[in-house]
Task: inverse folding
């Protein structure tokens, strides 16, 4: 029974999510009411709120799988690998597989999703809240191999770099560049960004 209940909950969750994203992309986040989403998903408003606490969660749950990801990368890195090297490698791997979180995915729905998140103040603010949680988790992971201040400074810089790179990639695709054509530039930008993190502005300027 537990398995059947779990499957039913997952199906309802997915139905609500699909209905919400479809309506948001069609009409805009602020133009769609929670009541309309519930009706489209064929559930009641109270049921919807059992699955998603806020309207913003209907959008940002799609990045939930990436919550705490940077901290996990640091903790699961291979023995002897520096934290920055592991984070750099992981971001490059994401670019190669066109992970939407890197911004380098030219599926029309993914491009529209990023446009909605970046252009809707409420979603952008909530995204920053998610990033603050990720920053704290990353700082804790980094703090296992460096002092607390260094770990916190580096965590903030890493997540800022990833956000800037993702937005840069998305802008290129939103302007019509394909993910394949944008890939070399995205890799170059990521390499340069992590060089900045590792060696600072002066060293990066010499290499660029």
Result:
């Amino acid at each position: 029974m537990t398995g059947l209940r779990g499957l039913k909950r997952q199906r309802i969750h997915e139905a609500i999510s699909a209905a919400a994203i479809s309506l948001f992309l069609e009409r805009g986040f602020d133009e769609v009411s929670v009541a309309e989403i519930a009706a489209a998903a064929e559930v009641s408003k109270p049921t919807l709120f059992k699955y998603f606490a806020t309207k913003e969660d209907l959008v940002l749950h799609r990045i939930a799988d990436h919550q705490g990801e940077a901290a996990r990368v640091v903790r699961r890195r291979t023995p002897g690998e520096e934290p920055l090297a592991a984070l750099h490698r992981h971001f490059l791997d994401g670019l190669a597989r066109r992970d939407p979180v890197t911004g380098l995915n030219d599926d029309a729905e993914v491009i529209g999703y990023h446009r909605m998140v970046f252009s809707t103040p409420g979603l952008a603010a909530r995204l920053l809240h998610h990033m603050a949680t990720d920053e704290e988790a990353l700082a804790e992971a980094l703090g296992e191999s460096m002092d607390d201040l260094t770990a916190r400074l580096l965590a903030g810089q890493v997540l800022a770099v990833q956000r800037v790179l993702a937005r840069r990639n998305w802008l290129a695709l939103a302007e019509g560049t394909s993910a394949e054509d944008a890939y070399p530039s995205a890799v170059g930008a990521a390499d340069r960004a992590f060089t900045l993190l590792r060696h600072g502005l002066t060293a990066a300027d010499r290499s660029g």
The chain has a mean pLDDT of 92. The first helix runs from residue 2 to 27.
